[in-house]
Amino acid sequence: MFVFERVEGDQATRYVNILKQLEHLLEGEKDWLANLANTASHLYHSLDQVNWAGFYLLKEGELVLGPFMGQPACVRIAVGRGVCGAAVAEDETQRVEDVHQFPGHIACDASTRSEIVIPLRVDGKIIGVLDIDSPVKKRFDTLDQKYLEEYANILLRNTDWTPLLGK
Ligand code: SME
Asked: Atom 1, ligand 1: which residue's CA is nearest?
């Protein structure tokens, strides 16, 4: 059983602890499905004011729902559609302070107000996205983005993605 202690302190201190926990959680395991599942759960339980945390994986040019925590979500998202599709099409993190102002936002949970989507790259190629939703407007700032991108990199470095790359 993993017991994760929440540390008090400023945002950076708490994130440094969360990053260390992820290293520990993934230690000795390279399986992509197991690691995505545990990472989604870890994020969901580590961050405050979050109602959905999980993954969409690129399959034949379309994003398909992967492991997550939160309400059931839409299964398929075309590249270029919604916040997730924009992250792939633009090849960069999308940080949306108010999803009601984002043209084409796909509402999976009506309570979501802000969202961050981080592309996952293996050998320079996008294999999917990490998506985190919050019921609070402007939940994610630039510091959240910096640490969550680092968090995604820890997952990427500690996982064998070969089965997803069709090699
Ligand atoms: N809101 C996302 C869809 C996925 S759900 O939030 C889980 C989007 O606009 O792409």
From this structure: 106
Q: What is the pLDDT of residue 167?
A: 58
Phi then psi for 55, rounded to 5 degrees? -130, 145
Query: pLDDT digit string (tens) for 70-80?
Result: 999 999 999 99
- Which mutation among 51, 83, 98, 130 tests ligand 1's pocket best, with the greatest number of atoms within 8 A of CB? 83
Residue extents of the structural domains in the chain: 11-165
pLDDT of residue 8: 86
The pTM score is 0.96
Q: For residue range 94-126, what is the model confidence (pLDDT) as tens digits?
A: 999 999 999 889 998 899 999 999 999 999 999
Residue nearest to atom 5 of ligand 1 (CA): 108
Locate 139 and state its tokens.
Answer: 């939940």
CATH number of 11-165: 3.30.450.40
**For residue 45, which amino acid is it?**
H
Q: Which residue CA neighbors atom 3 of ligand 1 most closely? A: 106
Strand ranges across the sheet with 94-96: 76-78, 62-70, 52-59, 125-134, 114-122, 94-96
Q: 60: which strand partners?
A: none
